[in-house]
Amino acid sequence: MSMHVMAGTAPLAEKRALTVALFAVALLVVVAIRALFVARWGTDLPFWDQWDAEIDRLYKPLLEGALQWRDLFAPHNEHRIFFTRVLGLLLFWANDHQFDNRVELFFNIPLYAAMLAFFSWPLLRRLRGSDLVLALLLMIAAGSLPYAWENQFAGFQNCFFLLNIAVFIPLQQVAFRPVTNVRFGMLLLLAGAALFTLASGLTVAVIIAFAAQLLARDGLLPVRRAALLTTLLLPIAVIGYLIVPQIPGHQPLRAADLGDFLLAWQRLLSWPLPSAPLSVVLLWTPCLAWLLRWTIARHVPADDEQYRRLEIFLVSVAVWSALQGAVLALSRGHDLTGVPARYMDTMVFGGLANLALGALQLRRIASGRWYSLAQLALFSTALSFFATLTIWSFKGGASAAARHAGLEHGKPALRDYLAGAGPAAFAGRDPLALGYPNTSRLANFLANPTIRRLLPVSVRPSLAIAWNNCPALAATGAYPTTPALAGSSGTYVPGLGNSVRGRCTSAPLQTAYPFVRMAFAGYLGEAKLSVRLVSTDGAREVAASPVAAPRESWQTLDLRVPAASFVVEMTDEDPDFWLALSPPVEQGYLSYLTQAVSTWINRRNPI
């Protein structure tokens, strides 16, 4: 397993278009596969921290006019997640002030793809032939598999993607571009911005300084410029440390002693391989060997510059990943028995950087008695890495499916509570199936009228619908074998059956949302049965048109609202059929789009 890197400007120019095209296709494959998983296992409901950090402390004060700019920098545990909050606010605004976790999940897909691209492109753009194809396939595998499922299925977790982007961009800039005055300032700005992704963003300044020193040592960056950059970066790291909040309740999570720390760090550095010193050696030998060689070497050939820059980029990524592991081992290392899925999107790049670095170093050996042994060791490590990554992905997929099933099972309890059942709706329920570990606090959230205004469509209280003098409608109004649905009405009347006929018009409904969701049962779609949303001035109307009659089941349709004030018109002029409907539930524009995309994908989804 070695890499053939393109040398010279002419071959690079000839292969550039094909490389860019293949790279773009690979990223689109990653996007498509991640979208498939989100459509299958994603949900619009908030989960755990999203109730506190997003709904209660961000969107609620926004709607109440109480949100201030300094709230964007407020601590969330040990972190100051400014950029995650800003992105959340933008999506909340674009979705007509309705929270929807699935909207965040779909937005995070291109964000993740950008993160993957910033890491992969410096290497892939220098490969050709079978090496390029193999590297692209490995990139697709690393970017598509759901091993880090916690980040993939909770929109709030994009802070990990933002942190990775905040380190890959400056490392690219310092490693491959001349450090002009503008770029110098940009590096400082990015290092400062990284402090507001996660608390461990303080390591970004450290690793940029580290890369600058490697470049200066090899004559690829002026020594004085590297020294000045380092001098200005290290205070940023110190500031990052000083602004990390100290959470007393988290002290028991910290590594208790050096042995505790080293054992936790070993687990993190070994991942995805089994936790063992041998796993660390196998996975991290390329980085350690490069650093040893860099320490001993005194001269670097001029024609080796492109390789050295790429190697320095990869070494810096690997060292940064190891630093992240050290920070996590220190802050969460006590009795750490496994690697939590939310950390895997950071640790995976340490392994990938080491594998790529090992392949580049094989190019230097090229032949000799050590070449075959090194090639076998690297191939075995790479095979083990992706095999165990696949195993972790099966576990991640199972966990994502279980959470999705639990939350779907908990939705009726949330709707019942909002409909007036009170705390009794949560009796006997697993709190995490409701999306929050404390049902008393969850009840406080749901009792707040502002929070009720921003809930997602799947649990949001419906608009109160009143029918004007309509004897053709009955409460429930569905054939007895149809599952009960709260608030429904229809034209099937016990004792009279389908024979009831008539046209009913609701009292005017008011909404600020562009869409509503309604559920229908019966034979809507037959010639003499119809449901329409009509603006109160009669100028515009939208017809409910199911693909097929739902019969004795409920089928939901997302309908565009014809105007801010509208009525629902229901017509049944056929004595042989019946129809029933639920009150409309308001839906934001992005929620409508992501639901439509999810429905389209799931109809074709093999999972």
Structure characterization notes:
The chain has 607 residues and is an alpha+beta fold. The chain has two domains: 9-401, no CATH class; 474-583, Jelly Rolls (Sandwich). 56% of the residues lie in helices and 9% in strands. It is built from 18 helices and eleven strands. It has helices spanning 9-41, 49-63, 82-94, 101-124, 129-144, 149-152, 159-176, 181-194, 202-217, 223-242, 258-270, 277-296, 305-332, 344-365, 369-421, 439-447, 449-454, 589-602; strands at 474-475, 489-490, 502-505, 509-510, 515-522, 529-535, 541-543, 551-560, 565-572, 579-581, 585-587. Strands 1, 2, 5, 8, 10 and 11 form a six-stranded antiparallel β-sheet that branches. Strands 3, 4, 6, 7 and 9 form a five-stranded antiparallel β-sheet that branches. A hairpin with a 5-residue loop joins strand 6 (529-535) and strand 7 (541-543). The protein is elongated. The chain starts with 8 loop residues before the first helix and ends in a 5-residue tail after the last helix. The mean pLDDT is 91.
Question: SSE layout and pairings?
Answer:
Blueprint: H1 9-41, H2 49-63, H3 82-94, H4 101-124, H5 129-144, H6 149-152, H7 159-176, H8 181-194, H9 202-217, H10 223-242, H11 258-270, H12 277-296, H13 305-332, H14 344-365, H15 369-421, H16 439-447, H17 449-454, E1 474-475, E2 489-490, E3 502-505, E4 509-510, E5 515-522, E6 529-535, E7 541-543, E8 551-560, E9 565-572, E10 579-581, E11 585-587, H18 589-602
Antiparallel strand pairs: 1-2, 2-10, 3-9, 4-9, 5-8, 5-10, 5-11, 6-7, 6-9
